[in-house]
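Hi again,

Forgot to attach this to my earlier email, sorry! This is the prediction with adenosine-5'-triphosphate bound. I've pasted everything inline since the attachment limit keeps bouncing my files.
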Amino acid sequence: MKGSRLAFAIFLAPVAAWLFLLIVLPHVDLLLMSLRGKDELGERVWTLANYMNFFTEPVYWLTFVRTALYAVITTAITFCIAMPVSFYIAKVARPRVQGALMVLLLLPFWVSELVRVYGWMILLRESGVLNFFLMKLGLTQKPVEMLYTDAAMILGLVYTSMLFMVVPLVSVMDSLDDSLIEAAYDLGAGKWTIWRTIIIPHCKPGITSGAIVVFMLTLGNYLTPNLMGGKNSLWFTEQIYNQFIASFNWNQGSAFGFLLLALSSLIIWLGLKLSRQKLGEVAS
Amino acid sequence: MASDLSVRNLTKRFGEFKAVDEVSFDVPAGSFFSILGPSGCGKTTLLRMVAGFEAQSSGVIEIRGKDMADVAPNRRPVNLVFQHLALFPMMSVAENIAFGLKRRGLKGAEVGRRVEAMLERVGLPGYGPKSVNQLSGGQKQRVAIARCLVLEPSVLLLDEPLGALDLKLREQMKVELKKLQAKVGTTFIYITHDQSEALVMSDRVAVMNRGRFEQIGRPQELYGEPATPFVARFVGENNVWSGEVTASDAAGATIRTDEGFVFKARAKGACAPGGRADLYLRPEAMRIEPREAEGLNTFAVTVKAILFDGANSRLLTVTEQEHELLVSLPQNRRFDHIAPGQRITVGWHPDSGLCFPAMGAS
Ligand SMILES: Nc1ncnc2c1ncn2[C@@H]1O[C@H](COP(=O)(O)OP(=O)(O)OP(=O)(O)O)[C@@H](O)[C@H]1O
Ligand SMILES: [Mg+2]
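Structure tokens for the complex follow:
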């Protein structure tokens, strides 16, 4: 009895240490930092000024709303593409093809995000591969600028997120009994109705966990929006980066970090509320 | 009588393998038709072709006179009760039953009324709001059937729906299914590998083996007049002797078994003198210590064990050559004195034994 408790403590210790050192400690530090500032005399004082700045300066909260909106859009698009892909992998493809397809999905993640994004840039830029072929085929006279637009940025984000949506969806679809689909078909349902009434409700936990992961990864992404987005498609993480690195204003940066945390929590909470689910159920 | 379902020369090939092989049958409207066969004989494949989930390699399926060749499963006037029921776990009982009605574009109040009426009919009034997982095995069964019946299909297909239930419940559901079918009057096509299910419930039974129909007939016919050795062995219990035909005429054949018994029996098929034949005899055809031995085939056996099973009790006996035979033991107290180890005489009437020409395999 005693021994097992000791073993439990030993197992738990690294987890607890990890949680404390890497999650709790920095956040407490950030929180404290976000509430500090200098008054007119240059004295360090407790203040809410860092948070006030956010609301009074339109460029901050505009970026904030934009980021949230695009993260939601990216999640939605990823979901729409991942759904049929996962269905094909889980239900249509033969077992051997199934494995190959999963590996194919995984393959891009073998290289770093930076390389992946550069891959897209090579494809899309003015002197890029796509433009080369478009001109060869005579579809355009002048090269089209496809990079540095919101569309290009979302494309990159969706591409980066795909795997994290497909994996939970495939596993949850694997557990869907084929005969349920056949039963619905037999009872007179068409394709679309089967998706709406059987497949999507069954996949709900997978959809939610996939959506949460994709949403959070997108919201916190820095590289893709920075490299593929245009000059005026600022991402909120870039604002945080600017505060920390460019302006060297750690207090302001911390406040922004906390606002981003609040935002992602709020949207996920809303999403769970709307789909009538609990976080615990999704995780299990 | 008009046929609800008419199947002609239906064949299904998976590569070289023929899962269903030139099957033809007609099912009269309102009847209970069973397809009985061992595991893997192609029953499910046949049913899935009728439901439209599997395309036939050749042959014709007609439902109420309409060819079903190009009709999708969701447009066919048949419904299938799946082997594992396939109730929708994300829906309540009422939603499960309402599913098909909504697909037909019926509106709220009308759907509710029909669902409640259907639940009443299958003996589950007020169960609508329950979740499917809260139901017992037998109740799930009835919901699965209700979900199909509410659509008033021309033909209801059932794929071993009692397979997952325990024995007691299965016995009970057998009778209930039969009663339900009589009440609603829908044509049922029921597949099973359990001969007692098929015999108890059906108006007509088809015995299937290796993708082919061996015999179609009333349960009594299958039991009393099996057309092939397979049916004789598969439907009900039978004792089997192998032997050689010594004489045959219009009335029957005389066969000398490998153990040396000489029996008279009825002949099915060509039992020519000198040929090999198998003799099939039901346990209940044998009489223990017959008083009138005149005209009976009689022989002596040793009782090995008493297999008591109420009205279905039997004696396990062996001949001198250690050939095991089952003999029915009527529970009328007359044979209470029989104990293992005892030697008894049994006799049977030549009309109750059937001789089939022996085949190489099968
Ligand atoms: N998609 C398929 N591809 C290849 N062979 C198949 C396929 N479906 C079924 N079979 C074969 O066809 C035969 C009949 O299968 P079927 O499922 O119809 O049997 P069944 O009579 O329903 O058996 P059970 O009583 O075990 O359910 C089997 O030998 C099976 O291996
Ligand atoms: Mg089957």
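The first strand of chain B starts at residue 3 and ends at 14. The pocket of magnesium ion (ligand 2) is lined by residues B 43-44, 83, 159 (CB under 6 Å).

That should be everything now.

G.
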